[in-house]
């Protein structure tokens, strides 16, 4: 599969900011109560279903992957940035982390019991989201579960020049309406089971949407 052009900018940018990102981004224990509750609910759902391991896609330095593991989930991390994966392996040597892209996962069909895409799909151009969601669907086992969370907006495209303490970046972020994301998940074959919209408050200046979805056991 030919790699989409935008991935090079994402990879280079996160290699550049990896150390600063790991220092600045909160651990799951420091998140707001609703975010912690949704992660806990996802962990319980995939543990109960027991359809296979959970892939934390866009895992960064592995903080959320380790949190899932602490909740009793068989979890591993995948990230586009080799530097992020290096940091994740150093911080959590007992867990598995691999370099890869959610546009083309090196996994067999139906391998996963769960997928977590936690603030990791927003760099994908909107027209390519169906490719990513189709890959989620392909790699999930029938009855497997998806949790996807991130900032949302009304077709907002952000092009920051710097991030995480002034480091140069060249990626773009695309904030889509929650209803559009829900519709795309449905078109990819998922059944939406829960949706949470958190309005801006305190340090958070943008709306956050969290989706829980399931791959049906039968087509």
TrEMBL record:
Per the record's keyword annotation, is Repeat included, yes or no? Answer: no
Task: State one molecular function term (GO).
Answer: methyltransferase activity
InterPro entries documented for this protein: Methyltransf_25, SAM-dependent_MTases_sf
Q: Which Pfam families match?
A: Methyltransf_25
Q: Coiled coil located at which positions?
A: none
Q: Where is the Methyltransferase domain?
A: 54-144
Superkingdom of this protein's organism: Bacteria
Q: Which GO terms describe its biological process?
A: methylation
Query: What's in the keyword line of the UniProt record?
Result: Methyltransferase, Transferase
Q: Which PANTHER family match?
A: TRANS-ACONITATE 2-METHYLTRANSFERASE, TRANS-ACONITATE 2-METHYLTRANSFERASE-RELATED
- The protein's name is Class I SAM-dependent methyltransferase
List the source organism.
Streptomyces lannensis
């Amino acid at each position: 599969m030919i790699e989409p052009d935008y991935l090079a900018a994402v990879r280079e940018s996160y290699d550049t900011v990896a150390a600063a990102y790991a220092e600045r981004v909160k651990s799951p224990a420091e998140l707001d109560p609703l975010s912690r509750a949704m992660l806990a609910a996802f962990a319980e759902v995939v543990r109960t279903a027991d359809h296979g391991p959970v892939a934390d896609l866009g895992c960064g330095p592995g903080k959320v992957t380790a949190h899932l593991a602490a909740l009793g989930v068989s979890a591993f991390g995948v990230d586009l940035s080799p530097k992020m994966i290096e940091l994740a392996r150093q911080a959590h040597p007992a867990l598995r982390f691999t370099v890869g892209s959610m546009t083309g996962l090196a996994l067999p069909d139906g391998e996963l019991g769960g997928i977590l895409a936690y603030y990791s799909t927003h760099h994908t151009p909107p027209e390519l989201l169906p490719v990513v969601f189709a890959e989620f669907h392909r790699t999930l086992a029938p009855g497997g579960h998806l949790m996807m969370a991130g900032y949302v907006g009304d077709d907002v495209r952000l092009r920051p020049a710097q991030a995480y303490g002034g480091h140069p970046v060249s990626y773009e972020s695309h904030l889509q309406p929650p209803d559009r994301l829900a519709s795309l998940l449905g078109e990819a074959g998922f059944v939406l089971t829960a949706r949470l919209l958190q309005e801006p408050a305190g340090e958070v200046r943008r709306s956050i949407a969290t989706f829980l979805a399931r791959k049906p056991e039968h087509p």
